[in-house]
Design brief:
Two copies of one chain form a homodimer. By secondary structure, the first copy, chain A, is an alpha/beta fold. Chain A is built from 13 helices and 18 strands. Chains A, B: It is an enzyme of class 2 (transferase).
Chain lengths: 416, 416
């Protein structure tokens, strides 16, 4: 007897047959006495089809008009799902973001949610209806449609759940949860029953792309229990079984602390490393280097600066592989001469491997165990970066899988 | 320097290339100093695709959800057209019906427009923007999306033009105007430069399906000069030429009266005739027969009742061919015994031919010339129905083309 929000991704909504399965699953939860709000994505392929049309018309389409266009995919989805529920005897009603309304700022194509009015939704839930709300979109103060950007439906679902003070937000997707690492790299990888919000943030940003990172932030801010689970199971599987499947992003660290120190091994194959050598070690130098890179809209991840020797230092940072050439050009053209650097070198074939876990806060020696494991495999560490709940190293890309497998085993992640 | 509304049908919006051509045409009008509002349909095929998805999900989809679904087609169109205009340097902004807002009643899938707020549109026009508004749809008092039914974009365009007191509403379509009759039947058929609102109503309802009939009614109620013209011409053709092309539905009868008495020959191949024989001639009998037919949602067109003989009469009416079997079943099952009719007969192979023209109001002898022409061709007239500006006859379908050609010639319609 709880209020629960379901979110279904584009694959789950990919055909009318699949939409009927979603309806069966929702009806099962409703039959059990729960109040259900559903936030579906557009049918898979639809958003790309629409953006493809825009691209045929204009190289740089106006963001306001792009949002007007792209939001139609989710609007069609909610109507189809309402019909599918009605066809199996459920009362259901669909709303576009502007109808709720879900108010956002005016940053078209990447808007941020400001407020959600729950009056209509509560009225319908109290009347016994399933309420279906478009993901990915809202409306600004001018009455223009806005979208939240790619993967925004996850954020919509968590935000709606928070606004309604739902008991849980269930994110149905095509994977069955969050794993200790990618099962394609380590076959012993194990599904996590729970993961903390902070770990999930580190796992998501490090490449375990199960949930859009903004939705995890939202879940964290509102302490909304959010479960990632599979929509590919039998829609009529017993509710007791389904309601504990997948991975729960939890906010109760206490239970967690007694478990393993390390939660998972994340990795990102797609890194490059750039080093500015022989930089005069004076105040403002980091800004002069990274400011120019940021101005070119290049995302920088790890950053280290060496101890200065004779008034000179080296400055190293990583950027995604797609931005490598652009970053090198910026440095050579705009930065090198200005700051009087000796030279600029780079390596486009590096990868990042991270161990993540809130448990490491209270356990010493995680870093040394990580470095020993890599050393025993003969893997050289090029850069190190640490936070409270993760340690990341940059290594030659050819050792990435080996490093992930070795660390997964060294920290005992294959055992439940 | 006038405010002009353009409406483009689904074929004109059928691909991104065609949308670019629409943008060129609109820009040409805007360049000439006019304020332009555009009402485009969904891309051709899109509405059918969406309704097909609905049908896969439910035999009888909820009308509210159908409107939520179907309205997305036009929303995508307006955004794409705005992008196409921006890509060639025009300022443009798109609005869905609910954003204007275009207020309607709550008759989902066949809503009627109640009011149109012109504030936003005027503000944008005054700022030099082309304003693009979704056809086919509006919003009711509950904030639900409604649609006006098939062909509703014509009605939207005329209604928007009326609300803005536009100088003219241009309906761009895949024909280049209204003809004296169907050129596929009579090769000498001639395009009409003007046609009155009442003639257009008769032409439309009689089968010259160029414009949705509700849009013609709207044009009539608001005396909105409306021009039907082709979108298949060169989008950059000289404005002076384009602005007098097609057919203007006018409201100035005086100029018209001096022209030909007959404007055109309309026809409908798709008729059937049903006769209830030996009906007791007492009050209420027509209602007992037609009420049952209307209750079954069957549209009745021509109706005649013969002079009563010995207290008995015959009652004849026409229904569309697709409804013939249903109508016969209703009469045999529910009506015949109740009213004590002798028998019910029908003919499923008849057609209707009509001469139409406001000129006939002031000219006698139109009917006799029509009947003489048909008689000279040996065509038997089965039913006759007249109004102030048209005379319709029902004939054997095999003579339909012959009748249309003979009448077109007899009334001299091939000469300008």
């Amino acid at each position: 007897m709880a209020l629960i929000v379901h979110k279904y991704g584009g694959t789950s909504m990919g055909s009318t047959e699949r939409i009927k399965n979603v309806a069966k699953r929702v009806a099962k939860w409703h039959d059990a006495g729960h109040q259900i709000v559903v936030v579906p994505s557009a049918m898979s392929g639809e958003t790309n089809r629409l953006l493809g049309l825009a691209k045929e018309i204009s190289e740089q389409p106006d963001p306001r008009e792009l949002d007007m266009l792209a939001s139609t995919g989710e609007q069609a989805s909610v109507a189809l799902l309402a019909m599918a529920l009605q066809a199996i005897g459920k009362q259901a009603v669909s709303y576009a973001g502007w109808q709720v309304p879900i108010k956002t700022d005016s940053s078209y194509t990447k808007a941020r949610i400001r407020s959600i009015d729950d009056a209509k939704v509560r009225r319908d839930l109290d009347a016994g209806k399933v309420v279906i709300i478009t993901g990915f979109q809202g409306v600004n103060d001018d009455g223009d449609i806005t979208t939240l950007g790619r993967g925004g439906s996850d954020t919509s679902a968590v935000a709606v759940a928070a606004a309604l003070k739902a008991a849980e937000c269930l994110i149905y997707t095509d994977v069955d949860g969050v794993y200790t690492t990618d099962p394609r790299v380590v076959s012993e990888a194990r599904r996590l029953k729970t993961v903390t919000f902070e770990e999930m943030l580190e796992m998501a940003s490090l490449g375990s792309k199960v949930l859009q990172i903004r939705s995890v932030e939202f879940a964290g801010n509102y302490k909304m229990p959010t479960r990632v689970l599979s929509s590919l199971t039998d829609p009529l599987m017993p509710l007791e079984e389904e309601s504990v499947s997948g991975t729960l992003i939890s906010f109760e660290e206490d239970t967690k602390m007694e478990q393993a120190t390390i939660t998972g091994i994340a990795f990102n194959r797609d890194e490059t490393k750039i080093t500015v050598l022989g930089v005069p070690d004076r105040p403002g130098i980091a800004y002069q280097i990274l400011g120019a890179v940021a101005d070119a809209n290049i995302e920088v991840d790890m950053i280290i600066q060496n101890q200065s020797v004779d008034g000179k230092t080296d400055f190293t940072f990583t950027v995604p592989r797609g931005e490598y050439t652009k970053a090198m050009d910026v440095l050579n053209d705009k930065v090198k001469a200005n700051i009087g650097a000796a030279s600029i070198t780079g390596d486009a074939k590096v990868s990042k491997v991270s161990v993540v876990g809130v448990g490491m806060r209270s356990h010493v020696g995680i870093a040394s165990q990580m470095f020993r494991t890599l050393s025993e495999e003969g893997i050289n560490i090029q850069m190190i970066s640490t936070s409270e709940i993760k340690i990341s190293v940059l290594i030659d890309e050819k050792y990435m899988e080996l490093a992930v497998r070795a660390l997964h085993k060294a920290f005992g992640l294959e055992n439940a």
